[in-house]
Amino acid sequence: MSATPTLKDPEASPAIQTGNRRRGDALFAGTARGAGLVILAALAGVVVFLAIEGIPGLNETSGTYAPHDSFLSYTAPLVFGTVLAAVLALVIAVPFAFGIALFISHYAPRRIAVPVAYVIDLLAAVPSVVYGLWGGRTLGKYIVPAHAWLADHLGFIPLFKGPASVTGRTMFTAAIVLAIMVLPIITAISREVFAQTPRLHEEAALALGATRWEAIRLAVFPYARSGMVSAVMLGLGRALGETMAVAMVLSASPVATLNIISNTNSATVASNIATSFAEATPAKLHVLIATGLVLFAVTFAVNFAARWIVGRNERRMAR
Length: 319
Fold this sequence. Notes:
- One of its GO terms (molecular function) is phosphate transmembrane transporter activity.
- The protein is mostly helical.
- The chain has a single domain, classed as Orthogonal Bundle (MetI-like fold).
- Helix content is 73%, strand content 1%.
- The protein has 11 helices and 2 strands.
- Strands 1-2 form a two-stranded parallel sheet.
């Protein structure tokens, strides 16, 4: 009479382990699917709320949009200011972020790269309010001479036309603050992508006589292009939606202007909502929510474009 298989029986263990593994896979798949559905449901809830509360704000009385007379004329300067601040922040942050990421992943010895990476990552933990206080009270005062120099020497460029602000609370200052805020995101993603480049690709380039920079340009950048685009787009999304730091730094006006060093600056959608929400009437509240819906649409379009660019690059690399 054969013995009953036990958990220690080598003939019974594989089946039991396979069953446990299948149950574990099914549990993990269900959890992941549920988390994805929860995120989609939350996103749908946000869209529904913005649509229900914001659509009435598209056709309010003209006095509600003061100093403008329509929703389009009210929103256009805000969208312009939002995009301008975000683009300026990326222009400042992206070269530094890529440079720091390359330094950490390819140039610095480990005893230096690890602390530098930690310090950069810690910048993401600083609250927006702290950045806003620092930018409005400290940074703005220190870069007033830079505003004057730009107005004197580069005043022929619309961005630096002037007259230069004496307080430093300008779009230029806000862009610098935003650049520091998005720097950790772009740097962290770029660093990881650069580090995943196949080592054989770089060694092959060096073996053919390429310099270190040429090896990076010919082997690392093509491999990491999609990740670099993703990093920049995530930084852009953060910059587009930033609220308190911009509201605390920027001396905003309801206008659309390219002049980034004067006291007349375009407001952003998020900062306008933050500064106007507390004293808004019910009609004005609908208008503010409608501008939030516009900001949501702009951010969604940016992320959609980013995914399309990344997918196209991945398909190109796979050929």
